[in-house]
Structures are given as C-alpha cells and as structure tokens.
Amino acid sequence: MHQLSCNSIPDCHTRPICEPPVHNMPPNVNYCVVPAKCVTNNGQIVSTDLVYCHDNDPCRPNPLHSNQKYITKTAKSYRVSPIKNGSVGFLVEKNLPFATGQSISCNILGNESNFFNGIVFDYDAETGFLSIGNIDNVTGNFSNSVVYNINLILFDPEVVKLKQRMDYLYKYLFQIELNATPNFNPVSEQLQFFDKKVYNLFLYLFDQDMRTDDDYQITELYLSNKVDDLYEYLFEVKLDRNLDFNPNGFDDSLLNNLKIKIYQIYIYLFSINLEQSPWFNPNTTNN
User: What is the pLDDT of residue 155?
Assistant: First the structure.
C-alpha cells in the first residue's frame, strides 16, 4: 500500500486531546485521520479509520469531511491489462472525494507488489464509476480477475522531487528509464553480471560449468566462495588471511569485496579492465 504523507492532507496533522490512542501511540505523536496507511512526522506508520474534526470542537466530526475516504476497492473482480499511457475503468464506492487530475494508485488486493499508477480521468459520484488514464509504473502480473485496492496518491512536493532525482540517478548510473523498467533492481543486475564473469572464468580455466554444482546459486556468498577458490588455486593465497594481497601489485586496491576480486583477476589473466570492457568473454573471439 502506498504511504500517504501527513503534510499533504488537510486538517489531519494533530490528534485531538479527547481522542483515544491509536495503536498505543504516545500522546504527543501526530498522525493523519485518514483511512489509509500514513506516515507521521517521526516516520512511524499508522493505520486509522478516523474522520476529520472541527478545529473548534476536536471531538465533533466535521460534516464536510466525515464521509471523505482516500482509499477504496473495486466493487467486483476485474481482469485488466494496464499498459503505460493506457486507461482502465472500475466501479468503486459512491460519493468519494475523487476529482479529475488527481494522482491515483491501484494494487491487487492481497498482493500489493502488483500495482500501477495513473490519473483520475473522471469519477461519477452517483454511480461510483472511476476512469483512470495516463497509466504509469506498471509493476507485476495482471493476468487474473481480481479485486483492486485504489487510493489517492497524496505526495509532498519533496517526495515528487526525490522521485525525479532517482529517475535521473538511475539513468546516469545504469542507463535505465525507471518508467519503462520499474522492476529494475541494480543489486540483482550486478549479481547477474558477476555470475557471468565467474562462470566464464571457471569455463576458461577448467572447462567446468559451475552452474551444474549442487550448491549453485546467484548470491554474493556463493560467488565470493568460488572466487576465493580461484585465488587459492592461482596464487596459493587464502584471502581471509592475506588482506593486503593483490595479484597485480596494486597497493590501493584491497580485495575486500566481490567486484574488486573479480576485476583484479581479469586484469591479471587477460589485461582487461571490466569497467571499460564489461562485455569481455575469454571463451569467445568476439570481444
């Protein structure tokens, strides 16, 4: 479920003194009286179904806000195929405070990792029909007929700015457009890259396919152990006992992580810097 920021929801930033505690929260903790998962000033997450209150009477519900809900779900199961810049339509609750142009998020009930975002194109308060367009951030599988959670995305400007900066960062570091590849995981991608490089080494040196090993797995621990075995075979060195060892005599390159260990072996064996030639494969002539 997307978290909502207290700073972007009106009249929800402080708790009336006569209101009972929520989740045993301390009396001085602020929170949002919105039926959603919400982040407080100190970063604590709370869930609540309370309503807004009058400023002059904190215990009497404000009739202008008492029926406002920022999260709902579809009235029935739907099978949709969300695509970037596409549109979908759902039947939801009536008389919700949804308006054209608001940012909105939809996720599968019981499987919140499957979601997509969009913009409210139209909402009919009398029938409850909600039209969503400009779909973006499509993440997960949507092949089944399911019920969807739907909530408005009430972001702080700073959160929007942070997203923009992350988009720039991923494009600069990984040449990845997050909008087009929302599932991209740089840690997983790096492990896949390391796995290929270690696999190529074992194939080149021993004509051995390490991926047929019973304990094979694409994890940093497994790959580190395999690379440590290579260092012991090639240089008769146990890296955990020789922290200063470097096969190329580079005093400023300590072998203290998997990447450096692999890169130093490629420099030693093939005079190849993987930073400059990441595609290099010693088992092919097409380099």
Answer: 57
Residues 6+ apart with CB under 8 A from 120: 98, 99, 100, 101, 102, 103, 104, 130, 131, 132
Token pair for 50: 């309370």
Burial classification of residue 23, based on how many CB atoms lie within 10 Å of its CB (0-12 exposed, 13-18 middle, 19 or more buried): exposed
Q: Which pLDDT does position 29 carry in this prediction?
A: 36
- Domains, the chain, in order of start with CATH, read 1-68 (no CATH), 71-153 (2.40.30), 186-270 (no CATH)
Question: Whole-model pTM?
Answer: 0.49
Q: What is the mean pLDDT of each run of 10 residues along the chain (287 residues)?
A: 42 41 38 41 39 37 46 92 93 90 91 90 94 91 93 70 85 84 87 96 96 95 96 94 92 91 97 95 83
